[in-house]
Each structure stands twice: as C-alpha cells, then as structure tokens.
Amino acid sequence: MDAMNHQTALNRREFLGMAAAVSSGLALPKSLLAEPADKLIQGKAEHVISIWLGGGMGQVDTFDPKRKGDPKKKTPGSYYESIETAVPGVRLCEHLKNLAPVMDRVTVVRTVHHEMIDEHAAATNRMHTGRPISGTVTYPSLGSLIVHERGAATADAPPYVLIGYPNITRGPGFLGARHGYLYLTDTSQGPAGLSRPEGITPFRQSRRESFLSVLRKNAGQTQDSRLLNYDAAIEQSLKLSGPEFNRVFRLDKEPADLRTRYGGEFGQRCLLSRRLVERGVRFIEVSHNLNFLNGAGWDVHNEGILKQHALIQELDTAVATLITDLEKKRLLDKTLVVITTEFGRPPEFDSNGGRGHQGTAFSCVLAGGGLAHRGAWGETDELSKKIVSNPVGVPDFFATICAALGVDYRKHLYDGDRPVPITDRGQPIAKLFS
Predict the structure, then answer these.
(1) What's the pLDDT tens digit per position in 340-384?
(2) Which ranges of 225-353 would DSSP assign to H, the alpha helix?
(3) Looking at residue 177, what DSSP letter applies?
(4) Which pLDDT belongs to residue 12?
(5) Is the pTM of this model over 0.90?
(6) Separate counts of helices (H) and strands (E) for the chain
(7) Does 107 score more than 50 pLDDT?
(8) Residue 43, SS3 per DSSP
(9) Is the dihedral of CA 217, 220, 222, 227 positive or negative?
(10) Is 8 part of a structural domain of the chain?
(11) Do the domain assignments include residue 22?
C-alpha cells in the first residue's frame, strides 16, 4: 500500500471514529478537533544532545525548588536552598550555580507528566519512546525517530550515537536496524564495534570484504526489509571503522583546561558529544549512569539522598560547560540540548529521609537549539507536587523536540500497514518558537 492509500485508510478510520463518537453523544478528542490548516511549527536545529538521568531526578531538589523541608521532622519541601538566575523570577537549587548565569539560554519545562511511577523500566521506556509499552508494537525511540526523519548530518558520521549501555528503549523499534545507534561506554576509546579484533590485519580485512562482495553478488536481489537494514548497518560500520572517524574520540586533543572545566567521566561524555556534533552526528544520548558519586544515582530513596548534592554538582559543571562551549563554537543555536529522566520525586521524605517516585509533575530541560528560551515553562504548586499551569505531556515534549529539528510532529509512520502518529498526537510548546 503506498503512502496515499495509507493516508486514505487513516482518514477513513478517523472519520468512522468521529461518526461513532457523535452518534453516541461522546465528546471528540482534542486532537481530532484540531484544524488541519494549523501552521506547522518548524525550528532550525540540526543536532540533539540528549542527557539521560537514570533513576528519577528530583525536580524539587534541582530545577523546580520550593520552600525548604526537613527530613528529620518529615516536613515536605526542598532538600537545599535556592538561588537566583539570569532570568528574573526563575530560581534553581543552590548546587546549580554554574547553570544559573546561563539560564537565558535554557527552558526548564516544569510540568512534564505521565502516569508511570512505580516501575523504572516502564517509565524509562515512556520517556524514550513517548508511549506506554505495547504488547503488539515495538515503538522507536526519540533518537531513532529523529534520524529516521533527518538522517546523518554528513555522509561520514553515524546518525545516532549512544554514550552508555545499549537498551531496547533506545532502539529503532519497527523502523528497523538502519535507524539504530552506535554505542560506546568508555570515552577513552571509540566504539568496540568499530575496532578490529587483534590479529585482523588490513590485508585480512580487505580479503573479508572481498568475500562479502562475492556473497552479495551471488545472493541476488531481496526485498526483505530486515536483510536490507542489516546490509545497511554493515555498510555503515565498514565506512566508519577507519581512522578518519575514530579521531573524534581523541579527547586528549582538546585543551587541558577545557577538559578540566567539563569535569569527570560524565563531563568527558558531554565533551565527546560536542565533538560528535562537530563531526556530523545527528542525535547523541549521553547517559549519566546510576551509581556515580553518591552510590545510588538519581534514585534517592533512603540514605541515597545524603550525597545527592555531589550528583547535582557534577551535572551542573558538565552541562553549563557544554552550553558555553557550544556557544563559543557557534553550535548552540544548531544543537538542542535536552535533559530527561524517567520521573520526578515527591516533596515528602520517606522513613530514612529519602524520596519516592512522582510522575504527576516533574522537570525536563531544553537548552540552545534556536528556541526562544524563557528560563522556565509551566508552573507547579507550592511543593512541586501538582501542575498549576501549562501542563506538558510526554507527547507534547517530544513534539517540541521534533519541531525544533524541523521534523513534522503531525505525520504518521507505519508499522507494516498500521499507522502510528509520530509523537502520539503531541503539540509543541508554541511559545518557545516565537
């Protein structure tokens, strides 16, 4: 079925759905009432650096501070004091002192929300694919969606790089292997998948490629998308396994003082992400792994909260340096920096002074990307527990990222013959584009 027939089938399905709703007296969904002539919002960003804070960053202790609480007395509130920023009225946790002066290049979206709070894997999937887990569809991640629509920025770079451990939630889902990621876990060397095993000399590599060429020639044509995707992945790995692309991983070529400003291993991952943007990678996810510094990562139940400040400071140092470094390289307007996490934390303290999970209101961050930044978007109540104004669902957050990259957030992709709205009918935060 071609694209026109797909659209016809979809329109017929939507018409029948609307007719059934009207005949039964039900209200139509907002998405079906939207005017088809609504102007498509399109930004001009070219790259995404997506920073993932696994475990659940507590918004009340970072980007949406409220009155200070007391874990010993079980008084709900923030764990730390707050400070002013470059944007009047927008305050941050006291441990985000390096980000505070650059908040005019940043928007904290304080009203992200979803319903998955009790299971980390399900919430991680939600924040990577924009949807709940389905028993019938393996949805693509945001990274795969972006590279499916935009491809690599250059022919000599992979479109999607994951600096962290591989996971299906970061994968291409029904889009196929060619829209997957190249990954590495160690910034001191390039991806293991691009390195030849010991003993494989250039001569032996050349001979293997010759054998592969003969096999392809004798195999004949195929229309099997799985084989075509696999073949495309082989081609890309062969192209990128040489010394030219691998130079991007030579962080020792950067000035020593800059590397110091970025900080430790997480900071070096952020520095590498800037180098990958320069090389032409479209989408980079930088994982701030669990068990850094405080022994618990961002999942600060019980005593895990005692050294949470060290984690926040590490984030602050690396991201503030990334923003100013991109700006100095004239890449900030071209690069959307995103900070996400699977859910937030409630203002109440648990029995040992830590915090549980909260999905009803939490913060994600956007920086650069040519957006009209305002320091913060959306408002929560006096304890950052409930949304007061401008709620942003996960599909809306995804639509905002897609719009910033010039991707049509209203279109449909197809899992076989099944139409799948690219952002689950999300709507961008229009004020960030005005």
Answers:
(1) 999 999 999 998 899 999 999 999 999 999 999 999 999 999 999
(2) 225-240, 243-246, 256-262, 265-279, 308-328
(3) G
(4) 45
(5) no
(6) 11, 15
(7) yes
(8) coil
(9) negative
(10) no
(11) no
Higher-scoring residue by pLDDT: 339, 245 = 339
CA distances from 66 to 83, 94, 314, 347, 360 (A): 11, 12, 22, 9, 16
Residue 370 amino acid letter: G
What whole-number percentage of the chain has pLDDT above 90?
Answer: 67
Beta strands 387-389 and 375-377, pairing class: unpaired
Specify the pLDDT at position 178. Answer: 87
Query: What is the model's pLDDT at position 347?
Result: 97
Residues in the chain: 434
Domain interval for residue 280: 39-195+241-433
CA 422-426-429 angle, to 5 degrees, is 130
Helix (H) or strand (E) holding 365, with range, is: strand 362-368
Domain total in the chain:
1
225-240 and 202-219 are packed helices; what angle lies between their axes, rounded to 10 degrees? Answer: 160
CATH number at residue 94: 3.40.720.10
Which tokens in the block code for residue 404? 């910033």
Residue 87 lies in a domain: yes
Position 224: which residue type?
D
202 inside domain: no
Q: Strands 160-163 and 182-184: what pairing?
A: parallel
Q: How many CB atoms are located within 10 Å of the residue 330 CB?
A: 8
262 with 318: CB under 8 angstroms? Answer: yes
**How confident is the model over 29-36, as a mean pLDDT?**
42
pLDDT at position 156 is: 85
Residue 218 has a CB neighbour count (10 Å cut-off) of 7
pLDDT per residue as tens digits for the range 66-105: 999 999 999 999 999 999 999 999 999 999 999 999 999 9
